[in-house]
Amino acid sequence: MTRHSVVVAAQSNDPATRSWAIGVIAAAYWRPVYKYVRMKWNIAPEDAADFTQEFFTRLLEKEFLDSYDSARGRLRTFLRTCADRLFMNQTRDSKRLKRGVGSAHLCLDFMEAEQEVAAELLSGSPEDSFDKEWVRSIFVLGLARLQASCASGGKLIHFELFERYDLEEADPKPSYAQLATEFGLSTTDVTNYLAFARREFRRCVLDQLREMTSSEEEFRREAQVLLGMKVT
Amino acid sequence: MKNLSDRVVARLQAEMQLPDLSGTRYNLVRFVASGGMGSVWLAEDTVLKRRVALKVLDLAAPGGDLDVRLFREARILASLEHPGIAPVHDAGTLADGRAFCCMKYVEGQTLAEHIATLDLRDRLRVLERIAEPLDFAHARGFIHRDLKPDNVMIGAFGEVLVMDWGLAKVGLTSPAGEETEIATAVQPTHNGLGVTGQGSVLGTRGYMSPEQARGDVEIDRRTDIFSLGAILTFMLTGSAPADLPAAFGSVPRPLRAICEKAMALDPNARYRSAREMTADITHYLNGEPVSAYPEGLVERSGRVFARHRTAVVLVAVYLIMRVLFILFARR
């Protein structure tokens, strides 16, 4: 597959390929979509959850993605616009947000997302929330890649150190010396292992993003936003 | 995989922006600025114990066009040893795959900050010094292509430096038709294409010549002359050249004419070199006629008077005394 595998695969005629690709897109975008509609349209949590399921089901049915042209914009912006369009169409038609019988149902943890929404409703725009959630989702997927990569390369301790030092909320952070004692390593090893894990994490996150963009140009622009180097 | 808090996401973002300097001789000091394709960081060279500027691309793309462009910029800087051009010390690829180049760290002010406190004559002298490295580069076959106030720095000791040669190109079609050996040595070899893309538009609107804005491939040093004229306009009016002509206001006509000649739409109507343009500036500063401005008799008389005020007054006094003496002698 080419570097555009996920976006291209999501437009494939082969149901299995499309299902896999939509699964990947959903993993990165379900939280942004859920929080976005909760904040922008102020709908109840259960309706937002139903809407999110409906949204990705429509994607799977090629209803939206067929019209996506990477030359005309980023996937992120396109999906947000699709969410708006779907919501407005449903409101106009006064239809309940129901999924069709036999359609795919994604396993998504709306409970956790809802707890986060409560805090965010008071601050920021829905659009900002969508972008922020997108960054978070790509990072989470990048972390999963890093963990898998470390596990397969016999470097799980690198990942555990990274998790302990960079992902935990502890304040103050443990010192490298404390980590060395905790993990039975030298301080130099802790420094080197963490440097390795951070470098690999950057690579995993960018690989994840590369898969989810359609062109090198889109990848570069999205990477700058993802890494916080440019605003959206 | 558990979700990440805002705080952790922000921390990870900050960490991912940092260039991975492991295995290099540099220690990171702080972020300086970001540009279109990368960021500039202040670092310490641990071997030579000095501060340097590291220009690091945002993304790793070995062999990609941005890498090629950065390394070309480094080679161009390496071949242009001039006090008005910040020297390059090193270039390579970091452990995270990002290309970097290490340059002299220039502490100082941007052109806009610097000229705010200067009078007209001092501003013109600064322009003369911007033109020096430019003329030097042109003589070696390079054109800058992105001259603008942001790319001119004034160092702590008043040195004027032309920065950011990232869009520099070998000017194959200079007015004289020459092509130097130095320029040939850093010719792009990447797929036989110019790394800035043939026919693509790169530069900064307002300071970019019309032919460059059109994406003409056949541009030469006169595109930089246009930009130099735009910089002079900015220095005289405080406004971007896009606001012309109203912004000229009280700017002396000869200086306005110099700006207009440098920024002529037709490259053939511009100064042929930065030196020729600064010669006009020098003439103006010395109270001499400038080639860009054909002055009338009254203006010429006024300029001659202004330039030789004492002599003119003495001659006038002498003549008046002489006339009075003749008149009294007849009585």
Explain the overall architecture.
The complex is a heterodimer of chains A (232) and B (331). Chain A has ten helices and no strands. Chain A has 232 residues and is mostly helical. Chain A has one domain. The two termini of chain A are 29 Å apart. Chain B is an alpha+beta fold and 331 residues long. Chain B has three domains: 99 residues, Phosphorylase Kinase, domain 1, CATH 3.30.200; 178 residues, Orthogonal Bundle (Transferase(Phosphotransferase), domain 1), CATH 1.10.510; 34 residues. In chain B, the strands form three sheets. In chain B, strands 1-2-3-5-4 form a five-stranded antiparallel β-sheet, covered by helices on one side. In chain B, strands 6-8-9 form a three-stranded antiparallel β-sheet. In chain B, strands 7-10 form a two-stranded antiparallel sheet. In chain B, a hairpin with a 4-residue loop joins strand 8 and strand 9. About 7% of the residues of chain B have low confidence. Chains A and B meet through helix 6, helix 9 and helix 10 of A and helix 1 of B.
